[in-house]
Amino acid sequence: MSLLSIIEVPDPILRASSDPVERFDSDLEGLVNDMLETMYAAPGIGLAGVQVAVPRRLLVIDLQDPEEEGGEPVKTPQAFINPEILWSSDERSIYNEGCLSIPDQYAEVERPARIRAKWQDVNGKSHEKEFDGLMATCLQHEVDHLNGVLFIDYLSRLKRDMVLKKVAKLRRAL
After folding, report:
1. Does residue 68 have an active-site annotation?
2. Which of 22, 37, 69, 142 is catalytic?
3. Where are the domains of the chain?
4. Distance of CA 37 to the CA centre of its chain
5. Helix or strand or coil: residue 42?
6. What pLDDT does residue 1 have?
7. Which residues does the record give as Fe cation binding sites (predicted)?
8. Which residue ranges are tagged as binding site for Fe cation?
9. What mean pLDDT do residues 61-65 have?
10. Helix/strand/coil (H, E, C) string of 53-78?
């Protein structure tokens, strides 16, 4: 496994729609493992293929269950290949979202509280499930990436511009 470079705003690849994954093979499994390693090292809880310059419809998520009695967080990695959101609730929830492609910036984003999604795993097997809470938010955030949408697109123009200016300022300071 190896760490991949995470693409950051304003790179135009982040605005591209990702293509479906068609081959379920050892290369795909290797990419998923590299994405998980990259996500953990960042650290983050979700990462889409396009964020590592692979514009394919795949993403990884691990909400990492809280530590048990002072131990390490329990890792529960999941890969979603060709994910689709089939349904979303009218009920809304607000989370303070961040993004590995928009480093060190966070903002409250309102999204549906529950969703039903379908996807394939690394072997091509189909799955369908309803999600709520942080998992619903994270999956919506990552699927947005596959469609060229960033969490800052849900903000007012003023807030979005402020976030982008902060990112540019931080980049200049490096």
Report:
1. no
2. 142
3. 12-173
4. 14
5. coil
6. 73
7. 99, 141, 145
8. 99, 141, 145
9. 88
10. CCCECEEEECCCECCCCCCCCECCCE
Q: Is the dihedral angle over the CA atoms 61, 65, 67, 68 positive or is it negative? A: negative
Residue list for the binding site: 99, 141, 145
H helix or E strand, kind and range, residue 26: helix 26-41
What does the mean pLDDT of the chain come to? 94
What letter does residue 84 receive in the DSSP assignment?
E
Q: Which tokens is 81 given?
A: 């290949």
- 85 confidence band (pLDDT: 50, 70, 90): very high
Query: At 169, which amino acid appears?
Result: K
Whether 38 contacts 31, CB under 8 Å: no
Distance CA 104, CA 48 (A): 18
Length of the chain: 174
Sheet holding 58-61, edge to edge: 46-48, 58-61, 78-88, 114-120, 126-132
Note the pLDDT tens digit of each residue in 133-145.
999 999 999 999 9
Instruction: Give the residue from 72, 68, 77, 59 showing the smallest Cα distance to 139.
Output: 59
Q: Give the integer Cα–Cα distance in Å for 33 and 79.
A: 9
CATH architecture of residue range(s) 12-173: Alpha-Beta Complex (3.90)
CB 77 within 8 A of CB 94: no
- What's this model's pTM, rounded to 2 decimal places? 0.94
Do the beta carbons of residue 115 and residue 130 sit within 8 Å? yes
